[in-house]
Amino acid sequence: MKEKELLNRIVIDPDIMVGKPIIKGTRLTVQFIVGLLAQGMTTQEILQEYTKLTKEDILACLTFAHNALADTTFAPLSL
């Protein structure tokens, strides 16, 4: 699936979850899904827990997060 098709699965609506990016048709935020993955849940475990999600929804979250970080400038902190 192409990046644009994946990103079409992510929406931002100020009336849902205070405007955080969510998976279309759900109240699951990109942040929440990426957090589950960061805590060690597998894609399969997430799909079993949230049966309306698809593998492409999870890939869309990762693609969105990747693009958000790619557009961010980081500056090292001096201690």
CA-to-CA gap between the ends?
44 Å
> What name does the CATH topology carry?
Arc Repressor Mutant, subunit A
| CATH homologous superfamily classification | Winged helix-like DNA-binding domain superfamily/Winged helix DNA-binding domain
Helix-strand topology string: HEEHHH
| Main sheet record | 2 strands, antiparallel
Second rung of CATH, namely the architecture? Orthogonal Bundle
Global outline: globular
Return Rg in Å.
14 Å
The total strand number stands at 2
Average pLDDT, all residues: 95
- Unreliable stretches covering 5 or more consecutive residues: none
Number of helices in the DSSP assignment:
4
Structural class: mainly alpha
* Overall number of structural domains: 1
Helix content: 40-55%
- Given this structure, which CATH class is correct? Mainly Alpha
Strand order of the largest sheet: 1-2
- How much of the sequence lies in strands comes to 5-15%
